[in-house]
Every structure is written in structure tokens, then in C-alpha cells.
Design brief:
This protein is α+β, with helices and mostly antiparallel strands. It is built from 12 helices and 10 strands.
């Protein structure tokens, strides 16, 4: 599909004007703008449901063994909290990577589905992550949202309605069947979302698959299969990622000892904590913490 290049060009200028280096949260709620002038090394994080689009340059995101690449005029969408590894693969001083992220709010999607007179679209099991081409109607609504940064007094009045329009375009777009899953409380996606929230709220505790299946409202066998399909990890592996990501945040923001932080996130054994941290992030926690704090202070 041929895109409206004038809208893409305008969005480039808006992001250049309002994005600081790297990633910035502007005055718009639920929006992150990004600008990178060089390719980056992969960064691991647990991402909440979001729409991420590229206006210039290219990025790639890895979920387990799956790799998703998206470039100018494309967007990535993911529906559940996922342990992702992301990096910029195409960027330069002359043509920096320019991107935008918008948090997907299930309650807004549910409201749109309730207000719509269109019958629900029933499809088989949906993926939780996908890449698509940016349509002109979706691009138009995104540009109008980011234009509000030039008129901040309009944000409280107009931002919410334009965000709803963006979500409506997604619901009726190429990944509409997937997005609708976020609006149905009884969908497989939302059942897994409930279990993920429980893990994130109780990450330092010992978890039982039976308890998570009960939270999700599924049988143990069905829950395990659907959780693995959605996140590419078992529930125990997912919990480990949450623990280690939380530990990394603590290392970056405090001078607490490594053993103390390991214990705080659920590791009784300091050696196991250090070993698993090194395996995930490529450096021992003490060394990584020093580097993270130095980067924060620069």
C-alpha cells in the first residue's frame, strides 16, 4: 500500500522537534517518542502492551527465537507484557531512527467494542505480537495526536478522543482480530494477561502453575500451553525475567549490595542470582550496576 508521504514527512519533523536524544516521554499521556543517531546494542526489557511504529530508520525486536524487523512506514504491536530484546539496526546522523510508541489500554478497546454496532469477529487463536504496514488512516490519526505537542493547551481536550480513534483504526486494521482480544475479558489473551499481572505482583514468591491457572481461569494443561505460545517462555522462566529485570532497576538506582538485591527479588542464593543475572545481561550484577549508575549520571 502506497503511503501518504506528506504525512510521514510531517511526522518526522514533529518527532525531531519534540523527541530528545534516545527516548522521551512528551506531554502526551501514553506516548513515547524516540530518536537515535546510531545503531544500538540489544536491550532487554519487559514491555507492556503497545503500538510501536517507525517513521525513519529500522529496528528489530526478538522474542525468544522469533525476530521481528520493522522499518519506516511499519508498526509492531504486542498485546501482553513480553520479555523482549530490542535494538536499532538502521540509523545515522543524517537520517536518525525516528519512532513512536503508544500504550494500548484494554479498557479503552473494550469501550470501543461495546459502543460499536459491528458484530465481533471470531477467529482462531491469535498471536500476541505482529508487524504490519502503516495505513493512511492510522497514520493520519497518529499525526494529529503528535501535532497536539505544538498546542499543549489542546491536549487535555483532544488527546483522549484521538487516542480512541487510533485504537479504532487498529481494531479495524490488518491486526484487528488480535487487538480485539484485549477488549474481551474472556479471551485467551486477557486470561494470560491476568496471570502475567499476578506474576509481576508476586515475583519474589514461589509460584505454582496450578495457582496461575486458577487466576487465568483455565485448566493447568491449557494454561501452560497458551502462556508459552503468548510469551515464548514458561511461567517460571517469565518470573525469572521479571526478577532479574527488577534487580537491574534496583542496581541502577541504588547502592544496595548485590546479595541484598538478589534476596529482595526472590533469590535465596547469591551465587545463583549472580549466575543467572550474568547469563541474561552479559555482565555480573556488581559490574553491571556500576556501569548503569555511571550512564545515569553522565
Amino acid at each position: 500500500m502506497k503511503k501518504d508521504t506528506s504525512l510521514l514527512d510531517e511526522l518526522k519533523q514533529l518527532i525531531l522537534r519534540h523527541a530528545a536524544s534516545h527516548a522521551a516521554r512528551p506531554a502526551l499521556p501514553n506516548v513515547v517518542l524516540s530518536s537515535y543517531s546510531v545503531p544500538t546494542q540489544p536491550v532487554r526489557y519487559i514491555a507492556e502492551p503497545a503500538l510501536a511504529l517507525v517513521v525513519q530508520g529500522a529496528k528489530q525486536v526478538a522474542l525468544g527465537e522469533q525476530v521481528f524487523r520493522y522499518a519506516a512506514g511499519q508498526y509492531l504491536i504486542y498485546l501482553v507484557d513480553l520479555p523482549l530484546s530490542s535494538n536499532v539496526i538502521q540509523a545515522s546522523e543524517e537520517e536518525p531512527l525516528l519512532g513512536l510508541g503508544l500504550v494500548l489500554r484494554p479498557e479503552v478497546i473494550a469501550s470501543l467494542l461495546l459502543e460499536s454496532s459491528a458484530p465481533p469477529k471470531k477467529k482462531g487463536e491469535q498471536s500476541s505480537i505482529a508487524v504490519s504496514e502503516l495505513s493512511d488512516d492510522l497514520l493520519d490519526s497518529v499525526v494529529r495526536l503528535i501535532r497536539l505537542l505544538d498546542k499543549p493547551n489542546d491536549i487535555p481536550i483532544l488527546a483522549q478522543s484521538i487516542e480512541r480513534e487510533i485504537l479504532w483504526r487498529l481494531i479495524n486494521g490488518e491486526q484487528g482480530a488480535m487487538v480485539r482480544q484485549l477488549g474481551h475479558a474472556d479471551s485467551r489473551t486477557m486470561q494470560i494477561v491476568r496471570a502475567i499481572k499476578w506474576i509481576r505482583d508476586h515475583y519474589a514468591e514461589t509460584i505454582r502453575i496450578e495457582k496461575l491457572a486458577d487466576v487465568a481461569g483455565m485448566s493447568t494443561t491449557s494454561f501452560y500451553r497458551h502462556f508459552l505460545a503468548a510469551t515464548s517462555l514458561s511461567p517460571i522462566q517469565f518470573q525469572k525475567h521479571v526478577r532479574l529485570q527488577t534487580a537491574r532497576s534496583l542496581l541502577a538506582s541504588s547502592l544496595r549490595g548485590v546479595a541484598d538485591i538478589g534476596l529482595a527479588v526472590g533469590y535465596d542464593s547469591p551465587s545463583q542470582f549472580s549466575r543467572e543475572y550474568h547469563r541474561l545481561f552479559g555482565r555480573p550484577p556488581r559490574e553491571d550496576g556500576k556501569i548503569l549508575r555511571k550512564n545515569e549520571s553522565d
